[in-house]
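Appendix B, Record 12. Input sequence as logged:
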Amino acid sequence: MLCLDFSNKTVIVTGGASGIGLATAKAFLSCGANVVICDRRKSVLEEAIRDIKKDVKSRERILAVHCDMSREKDVSVLVNKTLKKFSGLDIFVNNAGTWIHTPVLSLKEHTGSFAARMSRLGSGLYAAAKSGVEQFTRISAAELASKNIRVNCIIPGVIQTPMAKASQDKNKKELLRSIPMGRFGTPLEVANTVLFLASDLAQYITGASLEVTGGKYTAQL
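Logged structural output:
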């Protein structure tokens, strides 16, 4: 694991109770940060916190908040609890998400631009949303640069997470054919990328979208 010094830094990790989010939260804790883990799945969040708190050294540096990031009130509570416990916020990892596999015409309403890098039939809205995240990253980076706030985007490839396990098991051969490195990625490999971008090593990087894909988008294999 990449381990940089994040002592006296406070990090919020959304969707932090499992998969990439949990790996990221643990990585920041290992590097000395105060970590706020939020998740809308209360039981999963409680289980994750019990697991993390087995490490006595991390207990005072962790805060769990049950939060649905689609609700403005929940987000306000999340930020207020963070500021109350740690008196500041340095890094925000916007990891919470889901997978939607729904044909466009089956929905009653839809708006937006379908401009994903590479998508599958039936996943148009998901692809459009992810393309929007990249554009939002660039615009946010430009608007916030004068405040010394950097905004970057990580694009994970096929990563071994609980949310994706069923699909990966079912389509393993097909998925691996499209990955030049010949294997799925791990949550820790994505977490290491998050740590790098959040560190001073990346202090001149903003508005970037960094792929962690094993080469998945480099060629049609």
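The two ends are 30 Å apart (CA to CA).
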